[in-house]
Write the structure tokens for this entry.
Amino acid sequence: MSSAVLVVAHGGAGSTWQAMVVVAAVVLAAVVLGAGFGLLLIEEPSDLVTPLAGTAVVSSIGLAADALLSDNVGWALPLGVVALATLLLGALTTLDLRLPSPLPMGGIALAAVSAWALFGPLTVALHPPADILPASDDARLSVTSPADDEEVAAGTVPVTIGVTGGSIGPGEVPADEVADDPEEAGQLSMMLAEVVGDDERGDRRVVDVEPVGCTVQDPCDELTVDIDVGPGTWELTVELSRGDGTPLAPPVRQRSTFVATDGA
């Protein structure tokens, strides 16, 4: 990913605390520069009380513009860590924070290099752009009924899907309302195709899924959907996406085959 600063705000999960980190990093960097130019005196631990308390208070400003500021957490996080470490060294040791002493000069250089080098990886890990697929971790789907290769009566067949390591939500959730964990309150989709040969499938059709009672706040770990099938062998494919329908990477998907017979 390019190290260019993102300018398109998209918010998303974690954007509030990330925006606060951005503001805090800028304030801490300003404190280092203030000490470097002799505007602030940082020589002992007690000298840090006011700057750190002020940073904590000012960082709350980030809540007012989290969608915009959070996109910059990739470079702000290393900047803030280096700035804080520089201040701690200045307060806890005999090292001088005034320019052009080695401590502030080294801190400025390290902050610039780390912010540039870590922007890409940290952005992908903490605040990926909207066009990057959300990562899946431990979510697993299972078709508990009908069981794989089970024979059922043709007609209306209740299909029960269970999920572990995640959950099923209402689906079509606005992007700014999805759960923080993309595997929680996810959107369930189903496809059905007739098996016409060992490696051949008929046309796939989408099965309507109505997750009644499943909400973002109170998602389901099991859902039953009625599907209409005629006699034959059928392959069912179920997939869990993020609550707004964005696919997960790697996909959380399961396939199951059952046989529908007349008079079973």
User: Anything to note?
Assistant: The radius of gyration is 27 Å. The beta strands are 140-145, 151-153, 155-164, 187-197, 200-201, 205-207, 222-229, 232-241, 252-261.
